[in-house]
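Proteins fold reproducibly. Consider a sample protein:
=====
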Amino acid sequence: MRKPSMGAILFALVPFVAICFSVFLWDRIYPMVLGLPFNFFWLIAWLFLTPLCLWGAYRLEATRAADPHREDGGTL
Protein backbone atom coordinates (compact mmCIF):
# COMPACT_ATOMS: atom_id res chain seq x y z
CA MET A 1 0.00 0.00 0.00
CA ARG A 2 1.38 3.39 -1.03
CA LYS A 3 1.18 6.60 0.91
CA PRO A 4 -1.28 9.14 -0.49
CA SER A 5 0.14 12.21 -2.20
CA MET A 6 0.34 15.52 -0.36
CA GLY A 7 -2.28 16.96 -2.73
CA ALA A 8 -4.78 14.23 -1.85
CA ILE A 9 -4.18 14.77 1.85
CA LEU A 10 -4.74 18.51 1.45
CA PHE A 11 -7.95 17.91 -0.53
CA ALA A 12 -9.21 15.69 2.28
CA LEU A 13 -8.24 18.19 4.99
CA VAL A 14 -10.11 21.12 3.43
CA PRO A 15 -13.57 20.14 4.80
CA PHE A 16 -12.14 19.30 8.22
CA VAL A 17 -10.41 22.66 8.52
CA ALA A 18 -13.40 24.54 7.09
CA ILE A 19 -15.81 23.00 9.58
CA CYS A 20 -13.65 22.83 12.70
CA PHE A 21 -11.31 25.79 12.54
CA SER A 22 -13.25 28.52 10.74
CA VAL A 23 -15.81 29.23 13.45
CA PHE A 24 -13.89 32.22 14.82
CA LEU A 25 -14.10 33.88 11.37
CA TRP A 26 -17.90 34.04 11.24
CA ASP A 27 -19.05 33.73 14.85
CA ARG A 28 -19.08 37.48 15.51
CA ILE A 29 -22.40 38.40 13.92
CA TYR A 30 -25.73 36.69 13.40
CA PRO A 31 -26.48 36.84 9.66
CA MET A 32 -29.15 34.84 7.87
CA VAL A 33 -28.54 33.00 4.59
CA LEU A 34 -31.53 31.52 2.77
CA GLY A 35 -33.52 31.84 5.98
CA LEU A 36 -31.00 29.87 8.04
CA PRO A 37 -28.53 31.14 10.62
CA PHE A 38 -25.13 31.37 8.97
CA ASN A 39 -23.48 28.71 11.14
CA PHE A 40 -26.20 26.21 10.21
CA PHE A 41 -25.92 27.19 6.54
CA TRP A 42 -22.10 26.78 6.73
CA LEU A 43 -22.37 23.25 8.08
CA ILE A 44 -25.00 22.23 5.53
CA ALA A 45 -22.92 23.72 2.71
CA TRP A 46 -19.91 21.66 3.78
CA LEU A 47 -22.10 18.59 3.94
CA PHE A 48 -22.44 18.95 0.17
CA LEU A 49 -18.90 20.24 -0.50
CA THR A 50 -17.10 17.43 1.35
CA PRO A 51 -17.84 14.78 -1.32
CA LEU A 52 -16.48 17.16 -3.96
CA CYS A 53 -13.22 17.54 -2.04
CA LEU A 54 -12.93 13.79 -1.55
CA TRP A 55 -13.69 13.21 -5.24
CA GLY A 56 -10.83 15.60 -6.05
CA ALA A 57 -8.51 13.62 -3.78
CA TYR A 58 -9.63 10.37 -5.42
CA ARG A 59 -9.09 11.76 -8.93
CA LEU A 60 -5.63 12.97 -7.95
CA GLU A 61 -4.71 9.52 -6.63
CA ALA A 62 -6.30 7.70 -9.59
CA THR A 63 -4.27 9.80 -12.03
CA ARG A 64 -1.15 9.15 -9.98
CA ALA A 65 -1.81 5.39 -9.95
CA ALA A 66 -2.35 5.31 -13.74
CA ASP A 67 0.97 7.06 -14.43
CA PRO A 68 3.41 4.46 -15.81
CA HIS A 69 6.43 6.56 -14.75
CA ARG A 70 5.70 6.55 -11.02
CA GLU A 71 8.45 6.76 -8.49
CA ASP A 72 7.80 3.21 -7.27
CA GLY A 73 8.35 1.61 -10.69
CA GLY A 74 4.71 1.36 -11.74
CA THR A 75 3.73 -1.59 -9.59
CA LEU A 76 1.00 -1.71 -6.99
